[in-house]
Every structure is written in C-alpha cells, then in structure tokens.
Amino acid sequence: MTNRSGVLISVFLAALLTACSAQSETDRPHTGTDTIAGVASVVDGDTIEIHGQRIRLSGYDTPERGARCGSVNVYQKAALALSDFMGKRTVTCTVTDTDRWNRLVATCSVGGTDLGDHMVQEGWGRDWPQYSQGRYAKEEADARAARAGIWSLECPDDLWGERTYD
User: Fold this and answer.
1) What is the pTM of this model?
2) pLDDT (tens digit, 0 to 9) for every residue of the chain, 166 residues total?
3) What are the residue ranges spanned by the domains of the chain?
4) To pair with 81 at 20 to 30 A between CA atoms, which of 48, 68, 87, 103?
5) Where are the alpha helices (DSSP H) in the chain?
C-alpha cells in the first residue's frame, strides 16, 4: 500500500505543479512583450475579444453605447467599421497593460495595419493623448479635414461624455 500511496501522491503533486505553473495571460503582469493573436470578434469600436479574452485597444476612443449624431447611431457605426476592416483575418495584439475592468490593453493590427490608425483615420475614433501620447493625432486631424466618419455628422457637444482628450 505504501508504494501505491507514494505513486498517487507523486501524480497528484505533478498535476498540481502543472496547474499552478500554467497561468493565463491575465494572471501575469504584462511587460509589453506579451502577444495574443487570433480571429477577433468586436465588442465595440475600441474593444475586441480573442480566445474569450477582452482587449481594450490602446490610444484611441470611440463613441459609447447609445451615442448618436442626429439619426446616426455612431456607436454602432464605429463597431461595424472595425468589424468590416478586421473581417475574419488574424488580429495580432501586443499587450501593454490591464485596465480597471481586467481587460487586456493592447495595440493590435491586421495585415500590418494598426487598428487605431485605421479607426481614427476613417473618422470613427479619435486620438486619446492621455494614453497615446499623440500617436493618432495626425490621423484625427486628417479625418477631421476630410470630414470622414463622425466628423461629417452633426454631433452633440457631449458626444464624448466627460472624457478629456487634451
């Protein structure tokens, strides 16, 4: 019996050690070198999900749920623009942080194009310097000048809520 008990204890300890060392992406601090890749689904214009993990796209912002410019649901338009661009292609994300809602925060791309560049350039998002250090400022200025996306619509002054973009 002693030999059999020893084997069972060894198997149990090995399984426990394996389970403890197999931490998920969200259990570890993110160093900026973690990546996650796969076909993504869109949650909204600045949030995607890959392999069941929510990812907040870093550095830009899109309208929140219910946001409208006249009769146009700009929340939905932004989400559809992101979905149309990604399609069923592989999205590759470099994780830089985790936010207060426990989402990964990452810069993501499809086919070599940064999703933030695309969304801001198309006028469905805007640079958020607090998080981007101005990374998408030129794209926003170009979209505004071209009256692309949101910038072509009559939007309420409070479209972006209480957020500041300076």
Assistant:
1) 0.78
2) 455 555 444 444 344 333 433 333 334 444 446 999 999 999 999 999 999 999 999 999 999 999 999 999 999 999 999 999 999 999 999 999 998 888 899 999 999 999 999 999 999 999 999 889 999 999 999 999 999 999 999 999 888 877 766 6
3) 30-152
4) 103
5) 2-21, 74-86, 115-121, 129-132, 137-146
Return the exposure string of 59-94: e unless at least 16 CB atoms fall within 10 Å of the residue's CB, then b.
bbbbbbeebbbeeebbbbbbbebbeebbeeeebbbb
C-alpha distances in angstroms, 56 versus 38, 122, 164? 15, 19, 18
Q: Which of 67, 66, 39 is nearest to 55 (CA)?
A: 39
Tokens of residue 7, six digits:
């084997």
Q: How many residues does the chain have?
A: 166
CATH of the domain spanning 30-152: 2.40.50.90
